[in-house]
Request: fold
Amino acid sequence: MPLSARVPDLDVLNSLVTTARCGSMGAAANVLGLSQQAVSARVRTAEKLLGVVVFVRSPSGVTPTDSGRSILTWA
Reply:
């Protein structure tokens, strides 16, 4: 698979960065003007394309994994 097929688009990357900054997908959704479900879908899309889990999810929010921190530095 070519690299371009595995790189998330800018909207997906923006959702990852905003989610990390906000600490939750719900808060990121408010900032981005999207539903929480849309942000969650974008995060899942990125994880599928990149083949890693980006965030540890909990009822209180999200925390980047080691792989997630590397991706967020790049994004």
Notes: The beta strands are 55-58, 61-64.
